[in-house]
Amino acid sequence: MNLSFFDQFSSPSLLGIPLILVATLLPALLLPSPNNRWITGRLSVLQLWLINLITKQLMIPLDKKGHKWALILTSLMLFLLLTNLLGLLPYTFTPTTQLSMNLALAFPLWLATLLTGLRNQPSVSLGHLLPEGTPTPLIPALILIETTSLLIRPLALGVRLTANLTAGHLLIQLISTATTVLFSTMPAISFLTLIILFLLTILEVAVAMIQAYVFVLLLSLYLQENI
Q: Is the CB of residue 76 less than 8 Å from the CB of residue 216?
């Protein structure tokens, strides 16, 4: 039974070929295709409004120098948002429940923000490792602590996204299994668990959107520290 609960997190395959690439590229099919007209219907208006809203929210903590990253951050936000939401559909696979994929997204972008700071303002970037006014005996310990906290940032980004989505998927599967098992023996309890399952699904939709936003927002804050 334990294995069956975690089978949903294993990458599906067809004829021995992993389908995680298909699951990763599927959200791109929902984006508007190039057209000679800016607006082709209500759906395109809604998509443009959503993209504009996401871009504004992500650019709030950044100054003008950071606006060069608008395309990267907005694209990452849309990708995570669509991937997380599509993963809540039945019989689907969520690539963002894989820690390896989340680290592959977090580490290069975090490293890019760090290298940007070291190239543009090395003294300020290195100055974050030692707070101003630190007593002399505490300097080695604080430098070690700040360096460690800096290096685990991409790991924290990946683990946070993976843990939240994995926990939500497990809860949904557990409660849905309980609803099915109790339906024949205790219909009243089964109906109660069905209501809980419905509320939990709404909560997971919110978690999927919030986690995508938090992932990109933290990257934008790391970028702001280095520009």
A: yes
